[in-house]
Amino acid sequence: MLSAFEETLLSVMMIIIMFGMGASLTFRDFRIAFKHPRAIVVGFSSQYALMPFIAFALAWLLNLTPAQTVGMVLIGCMPGGTTSNIFAYFSRSLLSLSIMMTICSTIAAFVMVPLLMQFYTQGIDDSLRIPPDQIGRLLFALLIPTLIGIWLRRKNANIGAVVELTGGVLGALVIIFLLATWVPRNWQLLLTTHWTVYVAVIMVGLIGFNFGYFFSRLLGLNPQKARTVSLETGIQNGPLAALVVSLSFAGELQQQILLIPVMYSLFIVINSTVVTFFYRKRTFSEELARDQAKIEPASSTSSSSQ
């Protein structure tokens, strides 16, 4: 399903993305984020409690094949990706909080993902299960460029900013390239894929957005923080899931499992764009309401004095 060149490119892209993500962090971001500890805890809970269950439940309800179920659960267990930070920025959510939640979920991933995959795929044939230690080693290895990026930003803020921008742009370009080359080559597969797979990869993100938002509001977060958690919950690291599958399986089995993270990555961009426009409009409305609330009391005071 993926050529040797595409697998190599995917590996290099993940290193660049993780390097850029680390370089995006400053100590100011840590200080700002730790002013919102509840939001980080809620986001972490949404990421590793809600999403794996949502993905598994969808696979069960839609009666997906065992291979497709593995792909779905893997998507649900993935940490947030840098894509969520991009959409958080454009939706006028709290970018520093989004970055910090991504970092926290990524650092925890090499422990949480193997445990969750072990739990949710325990009834599936052993040939389809990804060895937990293999997932842990891969995710731990990807922490190294993240930590180097953090160190580089600390040593030289200007170089760190350039690396952050370069990593984000190159990562986006590689994702677009991989989708642009994969879709034409696998169009027959897409045409013959059962409708339940389309429903699963589309709904896992949409349900994640909604659960993340309403779960946050239920626990007392304000709307802006809730929108940030919502985006972080619904947008999983699809390219990382694809890398895990491509390094764990081969041949027909790889194609069956890889179909889920690839299709998820394609549709989550569309879903996130729609949600971002909606969230951005809500943010503008709230800002306008706050501005009017500041003006109106002053106007009424002026009128009464006359």
Descriptive terms for the model:
single chain; 306 residues; mainly alpha; BilAc:Na_symport/Acr3; membrane; Na+/solute_symporter_sf; Bilac:Na_transpt; transmembrane helix
Q: What does this protein structure show overall?
A:
With 306 residues, the protein is an all-alpha fold. It has 13 helices and no strands. α3 crosses α11. The chain is globular. The chain starts with a helix and ends with a helix. The relative contact order is 0.18. It holds the Pfam family SBF. This is Bile acid:sodium symporter. Keywords: Membrane, Transmembrane, Transmembrane helix. It is a multi-pass membrane protein. Its main location: membrane.
List the helices and strands and how they pair.
Layout: H1 4-23, H2 27-33, H3 37-61, H4 66-77, H5 82-90, H6 95-120, H7 132-155, H8 157-185, H9 187-192, H10 195-218, H11 223-234, H12 238-248, H13 251-305
Characterize the overall form. Answer: globular
What is the helix fraction of residues, given as a range?
Answer: over 70%
**Structural Rg:** 21 Å
On the 0 to 100 scale, the average pLDDT is: 81
Distance between the termini: 76 Å
Strand percentage lies at under 5%
Brief account:
With 306 residues, this protein is mainly α.
